[in-house]
Amino acid sequence: MSLDTTTAPQEQATDEEKPAAKPTEATETESAEETPKPKRGRAKGATARKTRTVELTLTVTGTADGDWQAELKHGSTWVARGLAISASAVSRAVKELHEDLSTPIDEVINQAREQQRAKVAQLEAELEEAKQALVELDN
User: Order of strands, edge to edge, in the sheet holding 56-62?
Assistant: First the structure.
């Protein structure tokens, strides 16, 4: 029987029976750095997208006589003031915008139309009276 003296029996046993190595702190940090975690928020250098808005204010005013005017303001600057527009143009424009807007405005326009009809009827009656008075003076 020969005895191998180059390798100690204790070393042979440790190679075969070595328990699994526990990860050290350094290996845990390295593994965390290798697998990137998703970052929250915006990427560095990226800016938030802003929606560009334009502030235009259109003011349409009308009188009981049916006279309508429009004014347009861009921000704080007046673009147009006191533009005379017809009632039919107002009615068409509002119908294009929305039905909820056209209903009350059409009611106002119809009231003005009725007032104008009454005024025309009154003036026609006055005109007939004036013609009768002129005929009587000529006789």
Answer: 56-62, 68-74, 77-85
Phi-psi region of 82 (alpha: psi -120 to 50; beta: other; left: phi over 0): left
Contact at 8 Å (CB) between 56 and 74? Answer: yes
b or e along 17-44 (b: 16 or more beta carbons within 10 Å of the residue's beta carbon)? eeeeeeeeeeeeeeeeeeeeeeeeeeee
Q: Are 87 and 116 in contact (CB under 8 A)?
A: no
What Cα–Cα distance (Å) separates residue 61 from each residue in 65, 87, 88, 96?
Answer: 12, 10, 14, 18
91 touches 101 (CB < 8 A) = no
Q: Determine if the pTM surpasses 0.85.
A: no
The answer for residues whose C-beta is within 8 angstroms of residue 23's C-beta and 6 or more apart is 31
Q: Could you read off the pLDDT of 14-51 as tens digits, one per residue?
A: 555 555 555 555 555 555 556 666 667 666 666 667 78
60 with 41: CB under 8 angstroms?
no
Assign 100 to helix, strand or coil: helix
Q: What is the mean pLDDT of residues 67-96?
A: 92
Q: CA 92: distance to chain centroid?
A: 24
